[in-house]
Every structure is written in structure tokens, then in C-alpha cells.
Amino acid sequence: MTARDAHRPAMPEPPLAALLSGAARAAPPPPKPGAAQRAAWRLTLVGAAFAFGFAAVAVRMAALTLSEPAEPRVAAGDAEIHVARAEITDRAGRPLAMNLPAASIYAHPAEIDDPARAARMLAETLSGVDEARLRARFERGRGFAWVKRPVSPAEQQAAHDLGLPGVYFGARDVRVYPAGRMAAHVLGGARAGEEGVRGAEIIGLAGVERQADEALRDPARNGAPLRLSIDLPAQAALTEVLEEAKTRFGARGAWATLMDARTGAIAAMVSLPDFDPNRRPDPADPRVAADARLRNRAVEGVYEFGSVFKPFFAALALERGVIGMDTLIDTKEAIVWGRSVFRDHYRMPPQMTVAQIIAKSSNVGTVRMALMAGTPAAQDFLRKLGMMAPTGIDLAEGRLGKPLAPQRWSDLSTITISFGYGLSVSQAHMAAGYAALVNGGLLVTPTLTPGAGPPGEAARVISPRTSAQMRAILRGVVAGGTGRSAEAPGYLVGGKTGTANKLSRTGRGYDETRTLASFAGAFPMSDPRYVLIVTLDEPTDRSGPKPRRTAGATAAPTAGAAIRRLAPILGLRPALPEPDPQPAAALAVAARG
User: Does residue 354 sit in the same domain as residue 222?
Assistant: First the structure.
């Protein structure tokens, strides 16, 4: 290097050379503290998240592969389906409804090798299975298909013996009714609710099963049965008597209520035609809504009952003191009210006492008593008797039996209602009303609960004296009036007949060829224990030269036959023959006491 070169300023080094020259490259700045650790931590978290996601998917797929399928429409898992349901028994502990173990058959269509063959074999083995429908379900290849549910043990074994791949069996309970049709309308029936392959919930459809559904499914019961006031032997006897009467008189229907006169407990309740709750029609079937067999006429049907209403107005007149047992009431002339004329069907004596009016069923005499009592009093009395509201019976259908009363209650309403037209009530209403007439004057609430006691003084509707008078009057109807054919020797039956013409099919006026015949009574009248109401729909007695449609010829003998069957079953001992040839008169004297 020359001196000239030594004094020349140095030229900058080319960038590439600087990059290639390790000596000339500047060292990078040192990393900030903790940055490397944070980056590593982020990578770890991302990796763990991916691993967890893949693991969850794998576990779910394994669970779906190993688990048994449930019917698609079931929202809850099988483990959440509550299948327990308490038994129902009569008052003596006899079983009326219980659960029995059964099975269901289902399939995984994807596992079935030959859907057509499998469907054919199952349809041939299991009753009620449609081969074409089952084959279509199998051929769709979906993950699940019901074959039949429930099935009997024999059907389960037969299907198992087919050895078909993809066909499986699950456990379930079924609700059974050992007495079959007996008390069908009281029990109502049940059906499967939520269901899966390991169980099915049982829910009530009607009657007690629906009314007490929550209580029957309550685990806190610990298996304790629900006991009813129904007496199964009495229920069977009353059913048989009504079936015989329905056939004998060619009636469209027949229904009856047997009630404890002191407490309102129902000992038997029958409605014909009936059904077997073990094979109750499917509620989804549109034809079921019009099925007369499912209708409990004793509770949900309301009717104009005719002359069985007359004793209520006799009791009202006696209670208010407008008449006495010996008061003579004019029954000679027809009653004209506006453009309406009210007369008796048969010629009556010109004057009669209240007992004679009820025994001979005089319309004119009853109307006069009703008018003497007055319309406000009549309306108030019937309201106290429970004739203006549902009875409160502990059945699902109880709320349907709502009376049909006049919107504007006039004197004319009082007149027609006094002999049974213009106010429609249920048979359960009639039973409660008659219980009050004979039990000392206390209104009872119809119930299926056993062990209920008599009501207190707050339920009083008539005095004990008036009740005693009514017992004498009702006994006289059977001893020597229109209800003679209801007599049951030894049991002092009392009651009243009622023959009500039904509305014509055109809706205008009444049809005298279509009647509702009833007998409402109690026994024994010396100390009434039970009230019995019997009703026949359009009966005709053809045993004589002319057909008869009156209650005295149809409903009364049916009630008498029923009492003769029921009294021994209920533990009532017959009384000795009465020495007095006119027992009604003797009772009347005691009532005046």
C-alpha cells in the first residue's frame, strides 16, 4: 500500500460480501426473556385440544357401536323411563290392575341378510304383524325398527327360535286387568308412554288410571297398591243383572251405581255396553271417539230422569213446612200455566197426601207441591243437593258430568223440573241426592276412596225428621206403588220409578216411543246402607199382550233382581217377615213421631 493509498478514505464493503463475511456480520440482538417458553406452551395447548377432540369422537363412536338402539321418537334415555306403576285393588285387596313382565322385539335392519325372508318368518310367527309393512321397514335399512311390542313369553320364545340375525329382544312391563271387563269404566285403562328397548312407561288413559296417574307412578309408594271402594263380587253381580236386563228388554244401554248411603263410597258402578281394558281400542283411531263402549254413562252422561226427581220436591215441601204428611193436596184438575197444560197420565183421586202422590207418581200433585215451595226455594234446594255442578267424584270423567240447567229459571222451569224435565244430571248426581234423602239429611260426595267417613253438619240439606219421612214415603212406593216389582223380601227396599221420554231425533219435542227408564232407591229402609240407581235406555217389556216401556215394568224389576243378588254379597242379613201388612203406613207413623 502506498502513502497515497493510506490517506484514501475506505470504501464501504459490498452488502453481499458483508453477508458472506462472518467477521463483518453484526450479531443479532438477544431474544426477549420468556418468548420461547410462551411459543412452546401455545403449541402444547393446540396439540392437546386436537387430541381431546379426536378422543371424544372416538369414545362417542364406540358407545354408539356397543349400545342398544332406542326408538327414535323417545327423547329420554331408557334409564330415565320410569316403568314402575302401583297395583289397583278393590276394597278387600282383590287385584283390579297390575303390571306383568313382558318383552318387546326390535331389529337392526342393517344386520338382516334377507329382509323379505325375515319379515315373512316373523309375520308367520307373531300374530298381528303385517309382513308387507315389516319388510318395508327392514328394506329401508335404518338403524332401528320395532317388530312387535309387547309380546307374550311364548311369542318371544318362538321369535327367538327363528335364529334371525339382527333381531333382538327387550324387557318391558304391561298393564293387565285380571277381572277383564269388570269395573272397566272405573279403571279406564292405560297405554305405553315413553318407551325404549329396555322399558316402557305406562300412563293412564281414563278412569282411575288417569285420575290417579301421578300417584300410581310415585316411587314413594314403595309398591303399596291403590285401594278402591269397589267391591269386586258386587261389581260382577251387578254387571250380570244389567246384562240380563239389557238382553231381556232389548235396551240400547244399561247403567247402575251402587253407593254407600252414609259416606258416598261407590261399591259398584256399571255402564253397558262396556269394553275389556286389556284390549282397549287405540285412542289414535278416529273411530274411538264415537265408540259408545268407552263412555261411562253413570258419570259423564247427563239426562232428564223423569219422575225419580219427584221425591226431591216432596222433601222440599216437607222441609219448608208448606205441607205435612197428612196434608191433602188437590190432584183432580189439570194445571194450566200460560199455554202449557200439565195433567196426569192416569186418573188420580181428587185429593192425595204427599206419600200417595209419590207412590202413584202424580204429576199434578208434584207440581202443586213445587209451586207451594216456590221457585227461589226450589232452585236453592237443588243447588244444595249438588244438582248444579259436577259431583266431584274422583274419576277423570267426573268433570264431564256437568248438569244442564235452565239459563233463566222461571216458575215454568220449576214446574217441569219437579217431574223430571228441564234439568239434566248424571246418575252419580242422583245417587248422591237420594243418599241425602235417606241417610238423615247429609249430602255425600261420590267417591272411590274406601274408608271415608260420613260428612259433618255442614253438609246438611234436610232435617233428620224430613229424612225419616222420606224413608217412609219411598218405602211406600215399593210396598204399594209404581215400584212394587223392585221388592226384595227381607231387605225393605224403598225408591221411586221414573220414565222419561227422550228428545225426538229431529230435536223438536219428545218421542214417546223412546224412553229412559230408571229406578232410584235404597235398602234397607229401616236403616239405609246402600243407594242403588238403575237406568235402562229404550227398554221394552214384551212379556204381556202389549209392549210396556215404563220403569215399573223394566227398571224396577231389574233393581229388585240386583238387590236380591247384592244384599248377601254386601253382608246384609235379611230381616224377619213384617207382621204389619202395611209397612209403609207404620213407617209413616214413626216418621211423624
Answer: no
The answer to whether residues 270 and 233 touch, using CB atoms and an 8 Å cutoff, is no
Of 227, 246, 280, which residue sits at a domain end?
227
Place of cell 202449557: 340
What's the CATH number where 191 sits? Answer: 3.90.1310.10
Number of domains in the chain: 2
- CA 260, 265, 267, 270 torsion: positive or negative? positive
Per residue in 392-436, pLDDT tens? 999 999 999 999 999 999 999 999 999 999 999 999 999 999 999
**Residue 307 a catalytic site member:** yes
Four-CA torsion 105, 108, 111, 115, nearest 10 degrees: 70
> Cα separation of 554 and 497, whole Å?
10
3-state SS class at 517: strand
Residues 186, 304: one domain?
Answer: no
Catalytic entry in 104, 229, 307, 362: 307
Count of CB atoms within 10 A of residue 491's CB? 23
pLDDT at 20: 31
Q: Quote the CA–CA distance of 262 and 330 in Å, as a whole number.
A: 35
- HSE-CB of 253 using CA atoms within 13 angstroms: 21
Q: Residue 383 has which C-alpha cell?
A: 243447588
DSSP letters spanning 533-556: EEEEES--B-SSSS-B-STTTTHH
Q: Are residues 250 and 176 in the same domain?
A: no
**Do 200 and 260 have their domain in common?**
no
Domain boundary among 191, 212, 227: 227
- Residue 186 identity (one-letter amino acid): V
Q: Are residues 221 and 241 in the same domain?
A: no
Closest by CA position to 291, among listed 189, 194, 214, 389: 189
CB count within 10 Å of CB 261 equals 26
Residues 195 and 329 in one domain: no
Check whether residue 176 and residue 262 sit in a common domain: no
Asked if 215 and 195 touch (Cβ cutoff 8 Å), the reply is no
Q: What predicted TM-score, i.e. pTM, was given to this entire model?
A: 0.80
**Do 331 and 337 touch, CB atoms closer than 8 A?**
no
Domain limits for position 125: 78-227
3 state DSSP class of 261: coil
Convert the pLDDT of each residue in 256-302 to its tens digit: 999 999 999 999 999 999 999 998 766 666 666 667 788 999 999 99
Determine the Cα–Cα distance for residues 238 and 353; give it in Å rounded to an integer: 35
Q: Are 457 and 269 in contact (CB under 8 A)?
A: no
> Are 196 and 327 within one domain?
no
